[in-house]
Design goal:
The protein is mostly helical. It has helices at about 5-15, 20-25, 30, 40-50, 55-65, 85-100.
Amino acid sequence: PYAPAFALRVGQALAGLGRYDEARERIFPLLDRANVCHRGYLRAAVAVCGGQRDDFFSEIARAVADQCSNLLMLPIDPLFAPVHDDARWGALMRRIQRQAEPPFLPA
C-alpha cells in the first residue's frame, strides 16, 4: 500500500544526503499521489531538507494556491527554520495570513 509519510521521509533523507535530484526523480512521483492539496507542501518539505530554497518557495507557493491545510504548521514547524531568514519568508507568511479565515498568524 501507498504510504505518503514513508515516501516523504525517504525523500527527506535522500535530500539531506545531498541526493536531491534523486529524490525529485524517484520520490516526487510518489508524493504526487497524495491528496492534491498536500503535494506542494510535501515537495517543499523535501526541498528544504536538501537546502533547495528556490524549489522550496516554488513548491510552497503551489501549496498556498491549493489551500493546503498543512500550511497552518509552516511557521512553527522546525523543519522549515532554515528558510526563515530568506527574504521571501515574510512575504509568504503575509500571503498565507491574507488567505486564511480566520487569520492564524499574528500580525
